[in-house]
Write a structure and sequence with these properties.
Oligomer: single chain
Helix content: under 10%
Largest sheet: 5 strands, antiparallel
Length: 70
C-alpha cells in the first residue's frame, strides 16, 4: 500500500470512519477508479465513496451494498 494512502477516511454522510478497499489477492493494493481515486467503504451507511489524491471526497459510488453469505 502506498505510504500516503490512509487506511481510514471520514465518510461525508455519516461522519464515521470509512475503511479503504484493497485488492483481494494482494490485500495491499488500494482499489481505485479510472481517475486514481481510492475507494472506501462506510460500514455505518453500507456504501462506497471515493477520495482523490488530495484527500477530497469525490463521490458516493453506491447508495447501498448488500452483503450476502453463501
Amino acid at each position: 500500500m502506498s505510504t500516503h494512502t490512509k487506511k481510514y477516511h471520514e465518510c461525508p454522510q455519516h461522519k464515521c470512519d470509512g475503511i479503504i478497499i484493497v485488492d483481494v489477492e494482494s490485500e495491499k493494493i488500494p482499489r481505485t477508479d479510472g481517475h486514481g481515486n481510492t475507494f472506501y467503504y462506510c460500514r455505518e451507511g453500507q456504501h462506497v465513496f471515493s477520495v482523490s489524491k488530495s484527500g477530497e471526497v469525490v463521490k458516493d459510488v453506491t447508495s447501498k451494498i448488500v452483503i450476502m453469505a453463501s
